[in-house]
Amino acid sequence: MKASASLVGPGWALAKFSVLTFLILVVLNLAMTTEARPRIRHYKWKVDYLYFSPDCVEKVIIAINGQFPGPTIRARVGDTIVVELENGLPTEGVVIHWHGIHQVGTPWYDGTAFVSQCPINPGETFTYKFMLSRPGTYFYHGHFGMQRAAGFYGSLIVDPEHGAKEPFAYDGELSIIINDWWHRSMYDQETGLFAIPFRFVGEPQSLLIEGRGRYNCSLVPSGSVAGSGDCVNCNSSNPQCQPYILPVEPGKTYRLRITSVASLSSLNFILEGHNMTIVKADSYNVDPVVVENLDVYSGETYSVLFTANQDPSKNYWAAVNVRGRKPATPTGLALLNYLPNPSSMLPSTPSPVTPVWNDFDYSLNQSKLIVARKGYEVPPPPKPDRQLIFLTTQNKLNGRMKWAINNITYVPTSTPVLAALKYGLKKAYDSIPPPDIPTHSFSINAPPANPNATVGSGVYTFQFGSVVDVIIQNANTLNPNNSEIHPWHLHGHDFWVLAYGKGIFDPATDPHSYNLKNAPLKNTVPVFPYGWVALRFRADNPGVWPFHCHVEPHFYMGMGVIFAEGWDRLPNLPKSVLGCGLSKHL
Amino acid sequence: MKASASLVGPGWALAKFSVLTFLILVVLNLAMTTEARPRIRHYKWKVDYLYFSPDCVEKVIIAINGQFPGPTIRARVGDTIVVELENGLPTEGVVIHWHGIHQVGTPWYDGTAFVSQCPINPGETFTYKFMLSRPGTYFYHGHFGMQRAAGFYGSLIVDPEHGAKEPFAYDGELSIIINDWWHRSMYDQETGLFAIPFRFVGEPQSLLIEGRGRYNCSLVPSGSVAGSGDCVNCNSSNPQCQPYILPVEPGKTYRLRITSVASLSSLNFILEGHNMTIVKADSYNVDPVVVENLDVYSGETYSVLFTANQDPSKNYWAAVNVRGRKPATPTGLALLNYLPNPSSMLPSTPSPVTPVWNDFDYSLNQSKLIVARKGYEVPPPPKPDRQLIFLTTQNKLNGRMKWAINNITYVPTSTPVLAALKYGLKKAYDSIPPPDIPTHSFSINAPPANPNATVGSGVYTFQFGSVVDVIIQNANTLNPNNSEIHPWHLHGHDFWVLAYGKGIFDPATDPHSYNLKNAPLKNTVPVFPYGWVALRFRADNPGVWPFHCHVEPHFYMGMGVIFAEGWDRLPNLPKSVLGCGLSKHL
Q1: Concatenated DSSP letters for B472-502?
Q2: Which fold has domain B42-159?
Q3: What's A224's DSSP letter?
Q4: Would you call A581 and B92 a contact, using CB atoms and an 8 Å cutoff?
Q5: N or C end of chain B: which has fewer CB within 10 A?
Q6: Which CATH architecture is the domain A172-369 placed in?
Q7: Which of A114, A182, A191 has its CB closest to that of B123?
């Protein structure tokens, strides 16, 4: 306005200069708007059922905008993500959890059904809106029933601020989600897990890399069977199940982002003939570790570097195998495609073989290698204000198989816990706080003496800003000589992994072994068979936050708890997250 | 009180008599309370997934209290039904529609998702409460997506007042629900109906009588297929698929209640070797008609009488076959068990054969035989206040196959229409009223010239108490030389069936043929290929009422409209029916 006004004044030359300067500044400013300034990134997504054949066997999946995996969000720190999510499913509600995003100030958009919000009803459009505060590899997925297992997931990648540099160099970038896959529908799996007698989902039929696997169609009866519409259609030439291509130029170094959304399996990733250097775990810089293969637990993300330094006349397998459970699933394969070799040129080498499935020390040792990168340490507070010891057991409840924490098996409420706390809806959840420590003496080396659990929806509430330690104590399942890996994921926070241990955690001595120097920050951590893991976090994010085993059937069978802090500091919740259970009376 | 007070008075003998009388009266009164006075009948139901093998092939169904079909409600006129319905499904909402019950004064308990109420969310308990005002054979079923096809249904039988007599006699009573059955899941069927290219559900694999059918297991590949959990399990010896038994004593006469909840098929019912006398249709007395077999359309109920007058040393088949579509499904069989013959004694006779599937005149003539019983006529009002002509066509919308009324295909809202009208939520539905008559000239003998439909959720609103005629005009589908049967069902009302006609309805002449004398009252009526049916009803039930084809895939594909009247006379809606869409802001 000033520049414009000065045109009619005496200082014409100066004014002319000013106008030019102004215009240049405007142009620069515009450039900066598109490149450097935080942006609001708007997405319109519709969730629908879709016939899809990720492993050449067709089934009904839950897809977003007709895509599987769902659309990748690529954004920058400081950006605001707005997702208008329309639920096109006929009778199912949906939510989307943004795994690893802390939702500071927007806990109602954490996307957990009956915790942060009511499920989005069929036909409704719900808008998620949240800011990205930290760069990294994240993902999103359904967090209602076992909808993640139905294919309802995708990637969310956050680049650092313009000019910010990673402490490692690479020429190109690749990204994959790895997963296990079943032919039985999600509904069938859910039914079996709650059935008497119990029917387990069993080992997966296939392993997927970025949504693509390959099933051995010769195992399926040929032709379609009269009247058996549910009988699998297998078609090996379906483009949906051709191997995912990872194209590389010989000699160059790549950053590969790896996310596991596995429903059940601990997965091991191998790049045939190539070492990998772990540089990030759950989006934090870690001390570089060179590995031949990488264990990835459901809910974890990694960035690894590798150099395309092998014989460039060949292509190589990228492979995923099951570890931690006796494998009954063929290797999942993608193609490391050395350009300009054609992607149709498949390796003649056999599928890479992973370390033996029950070498748990191998896995434990790899997890222990993950520590904060030198110079990037964020030391944990020296002492906790409160210590929780979670004995995790397999239990029975009214004849049904369950998982429980200190003998309480989690059952979802029908009112969002966040709304219940915020508005004092005391009938919406168990007001008796669940126990901080196991309520009975226990052994971890045999099936529980008292396998009966009680049902709970109790909430662990923390003083705002307090420091909480959680020790997850693994134990024997209901079957003799069996204990399983459980990757525990915390919403709304990262935690320091202070120590992994074997046997029973000793509160008197084990804390002395805690790593208070370069403990890694993570949002998901495995607890190994017959062992424990000690975590620390600061309860400084106002909201209500699930903490649960990321194995989909385990959480569905009750393996989780609810944490809450500082909800009294929150403004009124958006109306859009209410409407179910007692929250319809607000 | 008087009797008690007189005890201390002088007339002791009289008092003693009075006390005795009083006590006798009390006892009589109590007896009357349990026998004759209207009762409140309280039910606690939980909806869950269940593995079930209605036709020997296992699939996941939607069951109530672990039963299939759901529990039978047996009550008496004047009783109040209270159903506390807990939704135990993990991610799906549910509602229950009480088919044939008018819900006068309680339109919010009609149980139609997004019309009368929000779906009941997982974990919620919703209470239906309504009075039974008329005796008859009714049923209930899911009315959300295609949940009825998942087995979510059961019987509701209302006895007349104590002392009230039916105008026919019988010695015993039997009741069956007949149905068609698919092995593909409801989700798979829904996905196909909205897929591009369209995938039809196809002909059913089996026909069920009271939840039991039998599939030819030799059509299923033997053994389970590695990794193909969805592949059918077939077990002919499963007790869940043994024929339903209709036990009768030789020489006696039985009332058989027949309800069709078929998803797709027009069904024909035969009692081998026994004639049947139709005495009720949709719970109204009709002029007795003797038939050898009975066409029953989805949504209809009948009572027939038959006498066990055949060779008592044998048992007989009760049989269901498909009519109106080219059959590709084996006969559904139950056992008419002449006592004391063992129920294991199966007839050696072949399955009864039904009239040829496309003898539509046979069906039309049977429907025309249904008229009000002499002495029980309820004459329709002589003239309508408004006439609607509904051209029903198969259409395309954005490449998807649809059904439409006057070229508008119904899409559910995300706010209950009842709440939208009552509280003036104008953004919740299309405020432009849909057309009373076809908007374009049309031919019914060829696929529509303009097959494109538009989407609508418009509402036909009627002046309270006015008389409405609806003519449903059938037409050719998108395939040449094809027109299908559609059983149309109206909620909240019965209608008089004034006439069935062939070809295009002529508003000038056809009304002269209307039956104004003994037109039957029904809530469901078939419209036959290339024909029309004329209905009349009085819009005197405050509420919002779907009127739709009772073929599950057809309504799912948009073959329905919403009627509404007198909603301004209603008190505030119960909070329990709100919470979704714009109704969460109330």
Answers
A1: EE----SSTT----EEEEESS--EEEEEEEE
A2: Immunoglobulin-like (2.60.40)
A3: P
A4: no
A5: N
A6: Sandwich (2.60)
A7: A114
